[in-house]
DNA sequence: AACCAGGAATGTA
DNA sequence: TACATTCATGGT
């Protein structure tokens, strides 16, 4: 039987780009969670620099994040932008893990996905996408991550109207796919890869693995973005 | 030299 | 609910 279109889309992307292996699982969960916060509306390249900054400052631990002066965190993560907000978010996260889980992030991440997600959402600076990224990539739990690329792709495929909420899109993916963290992990990463590499690099969209659709944002005139 | 990057909170109508 | 603004650095 032919797979449904949601599974088929995944297959085409995987076939085109191969496994992306974002945060494969042998990485430090704290680094992954911190990375998820740092990369908010900022390139992963700069988020990595900020991560390095924290490492160099000796601030890559729950205790250090909680106790370090704001200025020290500011310096460390400046490259990722929005450094004041992100410092507050990192501290809010660290304070919660310290206060409620004895500083052990695994205890937070081992909670059932729904309560984990709800708790992450209480932290100021952590919204739905970041909460899902932490659930999926740090905790290895099957929570689908929706981002601007995902929305744009579904719009251009004509699979959604365009006005759906984050919760709508997440629910749609999760209703159409088996609850498999490995699948969700690769799926989201592949959508990002497709948008960045294929769509941005090739204005003509020739050889697009996704129905000859490109996700170039508001391409002037033509450019293959529909 | 505008525009984008693996967003979120807040304010206004 | 639906938009607009703010936060901020770095690459193209």
Question: What does the model show?
Answer:
This protein has 226 residues and is mainly α. Helix content is 61%, strand content 0%. It contains twelve helices and no strands. The chain has helices spanning 5-17, 29-38, 44-56, 62-67, 70-77, 83-101, 105-109, 113-122, 128-138, 148-157, 166-176, 181-201. α3 crosses α5 and α5 packs across α6. The longest helix is centred in the last third of the chain and has 21 residues, at 181-201. 33% of the residues are buried. The protein binds a DNA duplex (13 and 12 nucleotides) through α2, α3, α6, α9 and α12.
pLDDT averaged over residues: 90
Going by helix content, strand content and strand pairing, the class is mainly alpha
Q: How would you name the oligomeric state of the polypeptide chains in this document? A: single chain
C-alpha Rg, in Å?
18 Å
Please estimate the helix content: 55-70%
**Beta-strand percentage range:** under 5%
Distance between the termini: 31 Å
Question: Notable features of this structure?
Answer:
226 residues; mainly alpha; DNA-binding
Please specify the SSE layout and strand pairing.
Layout: H1 5-17, H2 29-38, H3 44-56, H4 62-67, H5 70-77, H6 83-101, H7 105-109, H8 113-122, H9 128-138, H10 148-157, H11 166-176, H12 181-201
Helix pairs in contact: 1-12, 2-3, 2-9, 3-5, 5-6, 8-9
This protein binds a DNA duplex (13 and 12 nucleotides) through residues 22, 35-37, 39-47, 49-50, 78-86, 89, 124-130, 133, 145, 147-149, 163, 188-189, 191-192, 195-196, 200, 217.
């Amino acid at each position: 039987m032919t797979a449904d279109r949601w599974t088929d889309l995944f297959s085409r992307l995987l076939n085109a780009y191969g496994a992306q292996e974002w945060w494969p699982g042998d990485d430090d969960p704290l680094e992954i969670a911190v990375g998820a916060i740092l990369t908010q509306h900022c390139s992963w390249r700069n988020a990595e620099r900020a991560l390095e900054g924290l490492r160099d400052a000796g601030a890559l631990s729950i205790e250090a994040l909680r106790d370090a002066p704001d200025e020290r965190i500011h310096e460390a993560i400046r490259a990722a932008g929005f450094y004041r907000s992100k410092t507050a978010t990192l501290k809010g996260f660290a304070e919660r893990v310290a206060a409620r889980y004895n500083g052990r992030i695994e205890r937070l991440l081992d909670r059932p996905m729904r309560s984990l997600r709800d708790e992450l959402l209480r932290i100021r600076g952590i919204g739905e996408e970041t909460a899902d990224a932490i659930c999926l990539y740090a905790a290895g739990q099957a929570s689908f991550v929706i981002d601007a690329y995902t929305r744009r792709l579904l719009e251009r495929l004509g699979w959604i109207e365009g006005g759906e909420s984050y919760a709508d899109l997440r629910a749609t993916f999760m209703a159409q796919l088996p609850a498999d963290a490995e699948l969700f992990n690769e799926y989201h990463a592949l959508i990002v890869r497709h948008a960045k590499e294929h769509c941005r690099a090739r204005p003509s969209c020739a050889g697009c693995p996704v129905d000859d659709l490109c996700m170039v944002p508001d391409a002037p005139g033509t450019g293959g973005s529909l």
